[in-house]
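Handout, page 2. Input:
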Amino acid sequence: LGLDNSEFKQGLQGAENGADKFSNGLKSIGTKIASIFAVEAILRFGKELFELGAKAEGVRRAFERMAPTGLLNDLREATGNTIDDLTLMTNAVKANNFKIPLDQLATLLKFAQMRAIETGESIDYLADSIILGLSRESVMILDNLGLSAANIRKEMENGGSMAQAVGKIIQEEFAKAS
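Output:
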C-alpha cells in the first residue's frame, strides 16, 4: 500500500510542538504563581516578626519599670531555663498587675516546673495556670497544678489570703518532694 504519510507525520509534529508550547506556558504560569505566594509568605513573616518585636519591646519596658534587680535571673533559675525570657517577663508583668507579690513569683514558677515534670503537662500552661488562678482566686484553675480546692479553702479558713494559702501548700509540697 504505498501510502504517503508525510502529512500525517507533519500533523503529529505540529501537535507535539503545540503540546510542548502549552506545557511550557503552564510551567511559566506555575512559576509566577509560586513566586507570588513566596513573596506573600515573606511579607507576612516580616510583618509577624515586626509585631512580635514590638510586643517584646513593650513587655521588656514594662518589666524593667516594675521588676526588682535580679528577678529575671531568679525566674530563669527557678524554671531551670525551661521558659523563654519573653514569657517569664510577661508572667512577671501579669503577676504584678494582679498584685501577686513578685518576691513569691520564683517559688510559684518553680512549683509549676516541678508539677510539669511530674505530670508531663506543659510548663507554660502550668505557669499561666498558677498566675491566673491566683489572680482570679480560682481554685478550679489552681486545680490544674494538682492543688486541692479543699486544702486551699482549709488554709484560707485560718485567716490567710488565697495567695498565702497556696504559698503554704506549695511549701508543704516542696517538703514532701525533698
